[in-house]
Amino acid sequence: MAVYVPRDWPESVRPPGSGDFQESAIAWLLDVAPPDYRLHGVLRRHPAALASMALYHAHACVEGARRGYRTVRTELAEYVPPHAVEDVLPAYQAEGVKLAATARAVELVERALLGEAFAPKL
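RE: above sequence
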């Protein structure tokens, strides 16, 4: 029987309950977290701790992109030509979409690591 995973589930993470779920979750979380997280063995030994730290990092990245988008016009006004400032906005939007998707995926993986079972919504 196939295990249901939500729409935003990361492709490279095996479904919860599969034999390699935890290993694939750890590998993926380490890929989306800052590189120095790999230096801490405790995070490999305790995937829930890794997921928690990765989620805080992901949320901070989203908030940073939102703040940058809101303030780019005033922060760069004297350093970048006006047309270039306007060109930065779509970059913030595109990266913000990716960062938000990563944060949602990290949250799902964390929930699964904590034992939550997912079911389709009707």
